[in-house]
Amino acid sequence: MCKIKLKPFHKCLIIFYVFVLYSCGTKPDLARQNIDKSLLDEETCNPPCWHGLVIDKSTKEDVLSTLNKLPFVEHNAYREHTVTWVNMPAIEIQFICASDHTTVCGGAMITNNILRYLWTRLEYEFTLKDATNRLGEPEYIVSEWPSISGKCSLEAVWNIHGMAAAIYDDSRYNECESISDGNKISPSLIIESVSYFTPEDYGPIGGCCERIVWPGFKDE
């Protein structure tokens, strides 16, 4: 089993999104209309693209214009923060879910007026198996244990699509420990969020977390 380490930059991303997602609560029912179902529906653009926003092409104006048109986003309630992205100053525009009017359900990082990274929280149950049915097998799994939330933190990464899926597991013998021991991964793990990026930004390796070549699914 191939194991590599990731840069501290990636650890900061994982820690931040674990903190945000850990406090998000129960997912709404899929039948509700004001939630993002783009992973279930046919996208109008190929990833790394989300509702017409294209990584490394779309501008801040494009991001705000798109958010203002999406029915599952609370309009005019965006939160803008100064952050660092790949050693560059950046801003992150966070948006709130219209489904409950309080929960941050996504964010877009922008440097030099160009969208570089976008993440969004899933508001319905979508498993790792569902994701592979839609996207194919990921190239690798990024694993952090223990994480700031006290849960096993995993990301399934599809560099070919510029996408990653975040998963958290608080079982006693968790999936981080299991795949680190050389075992296959559970297909029924629930995805908490997805992110869009370029392989060049996610890319070079060194630092915090284990990177494990896709181990395949275990039988359940």
Q: Care to describe what's here?
A:
With 220 residues, the chain is α+β, with helices and mostly antiparallel strands. The protein is 19% helix and 34% strand. It has one domain (3-213). It has helices spanning 8-22, 60-67, 128-135, 175-180, 199-202; strands at residues 3-6, 49-50, 53-54, 79-85, 88-96, 104-111, 114-121, 140-144, 152-158, 163-169, 191-196, 205-213. It is globular, with a radius of gyration of 17 Å.
Q: What is the rounded distance between the termini?
A: 21 Å
Global structural class: alpha+beta
Tell me the Rg in angstroms: 17 Å
What is the makeup of the main sheet? 10 strands, antiparallel
Extract low-pLDDT stretches.
Answer: 1-25
SS element count, helices: 5
**Order of strands across the main sheet:** 1-12-8-9-10-11-7-6-5-4
Helix content: 10-25%
What is the overall shape?
globular
> Strand content of the residues, in percent?
25-35%
Beta strand count: 12
Order of SSEs, N→C? EHEEHEEEEHEEEHEHE
Q: What is the topology?
A:
Blueprint: E1 3-6, H1 8-22, E2 49-50, E3 53-54, H2 60-67, E4 79-85, E5 88-96, E6 104-111, E7 114-121, H3 128-135, E8 140-144, E9 152-158, E10 163-169, H4 175-180, E11 191-196, H5 199-202, E12 205-213
Antiparallel strand pairs: 1-12, 2-3, 4-5, 5-6, 6-7, 7-11, 8-9, 8-12, 9-10, 10-11
Structure keywords:
globular; 12 strands; 5 helices; disordered N terminus; 19% helix
Summarize this structure briefly.
The protein has five helices and twelve strands.
